[in-house]
Amino acid sequence: MKTLLIDENYENQRIDKYLKKLLCQAPPQMIYKMLRKKDVKVNGVKVKENYILKKGDQVELFLYEDRFLALTKPQTIFDLEIHFDVLYEDNNVLIVNKPSGLLVHEDSHEDMNTLSNQVLTYLYQKGEYDPQKTLGFTPGPVHRLDRNTSGIVIFGKTMRALQDLNEMMKKRHCIEKTYLTICKGYMPSRELIGYMKKDSEQSLAKIVSPSTPGALKMHTIVENVQSNQKYSLLKVKLVTGRTHQIRLHLSSVGHPVIGDAKYGDFELNRYLKKTYHFQNQFLHAYSIKFIKPIGSLKYLQDYQVTCPLPKNLEALKKALFLTK
Fold first, then answer.
1. Could you read off the pLDDT of 77-87 as tens digits, one per residue?
2. Does domain 175-288+309-321 have CATH number 3.30.2350.10?
């Protein structure tokens, strides 16, 4: 029998979710079978899959040691170069600047050198994370950016912080996220409301009518910072957080993000590539502000983190608006 003590890293989550992360090599049906057959007990008592773990609980698993080790293969820590900048860090939260070109999570083409794995390397080197000692918990991001979008990504370093950050993201009004972008043409300050649907086969999203089955509402607030007849520099705030929301929404009103290979103006993109050697989307996660932090993160009330434009985007901005 294996006995595990629940501390602050594992409290306030369902027992089945805890076991899925702990026994990461076990199929879900095995975990639910263990719960049904009384092979899992908390404080000596059988519990249902929706039991919420509390700090100090003792979880007993009726598994031999070799079987337990086989089912709890720890997170691999890769020896990766660190390509992000730390913008803010404390015991609970890590906020970083992701460079363009780096994935947040692995995909079918890249399963090692991701921002998430670089953060684990960073925390491991600092002695703040050891997968052998924290089975069932891995620090992780609470939102993502597209590969070619640069800027702020928030990571939770503890289970409680991850839970609170995820809840804040769901409520939308708790964390204010602002992006900087340059779009085609003169775009005035305005609110945009529309509906979208993801097209998984083509790996993009499309504007649809509100009555379309599966349609998701988009709400985007646009502030014109600087403009001329050809381009507009915008601050964009997301009220909702849909796939490719800023790129899709601006494109739908005739002002696509410059350099955008999916929703952009392809002729303009060719001109920018030829004239300025720019072949990326101009989209940067510029700032986040904790409007209404909850739980373990209440101390971040009104705290704001900003992230300056990377050098290549700053240089292009100056060239397009003829500023020094």
1. 899 999 999 99
2. yes
